[in-house]
TrEMBL record:
Its main location: cytoplasm. It is found in: Cytoplasm. It comes from Gossypium anomalum. One of its GO terms (biological process) is regulation of cell shape. The lineage of its organism: Eukaryota, Viridiplantae, Streptophyta, Embryophyta, Tracheophyta. Residues 74-241 form the FAD-binding PCMH-type domain. GO terms for molecular function: FAD binding; UDP-N-acetylmuramate dehydrogenase activity. This is UDP-N-acetylmuramate dehydrogenase.
Amino acid sequence: MEINFPFSTSRQNPSLMLPTPPTFTKMASMAFPVVQSSRNSTPIFSSNKEQTQNWNALKFVRGKKLLKDLSTWGIGGPCNYFVQVFHQTHLLSAIRYCREFSIPYVVIGKGSNCLFDDLGFDGCVILNQIDFLERMEPGVYRAGSGFRFNHLGSLSCNEGFTGLEFAAGIPGTVGGATYMNAGANGQETANVIESIDIVTTEGNFRTLNRIDLTFGYRSSSFQDMDNLAAIVAATFRLERSGSAKKRQQELLKRRRATQPVNERSAGSVFRNPVNLGVSAAELIDKAGLKGCGIGGAMVSNIHANFLVNNGASTSQDMLNLIAFVKDKVHGKFGVELEEEVLYFHPYWNYANWER
């Protein structure tokens, strides 16, 4: 079936701009301005017949993939194009396809840190399934960016190496954990990174050593890298330890007792304030917000920094709840909470899409 390229810029709809949107951090591929949608908005695509486009051994699905199926929050409408990549050459081909036809794109993994809009996404979502694992030498692991981070954490501890005990409780990918510098319980991804392989928007592969990169609390050089298309793989160097497995089991036990592991969430929504000696969860709890809800979105009764989808949450419900929590915490404590989750809005300025 014929598919027309490129998209018209007339798809950008100023009527979608609503007041007081939360400010979100940029996503792994590029930065986008925030666009809000109304709860009753019609999805971008609603065709009843699946359309596909084959290109360089890749299958692009048109307008049928629901983003709620790619997110641990279970929220999101259809994307215009969807493709899965299983190798770095597939990833490069998908990016070249999008560049050739001026299609905006994002690369995602497990969707554990993402909020997709109910309107969907007027571009291409590339699902990263690059999930290989190589043991370079004892304690040195090179993993594809689509490899499950919690599996790497469990595997390395079972083999007697320390540094990724915390990873067993993070349901994301190696690429996502590296990009966000995921961490918990005094450990961070950056502490054990040796090198990172990336692909640029120009279609070049590069290897960056740890000395070339800067990491901070839930931040990395990749978040400000103008020409980053995607992380392809990461190499970790761990130290041998006889107690790593035991410590990991203790952390997992604590996690099951203190986090809503059986509910639909995106993990921690807000970053912990810097140099205040108090966590975001404590501030939200002390503001009396546990159990508060808007529509189908609710502040968890178990952990206040987890906002959960009770089964019927829209993206607007979650955006409104995030804004509500920020407003209440700021009003009570004078602290401006900053989001850790990434919001994928449906439209943006095509003229600046590579940035």
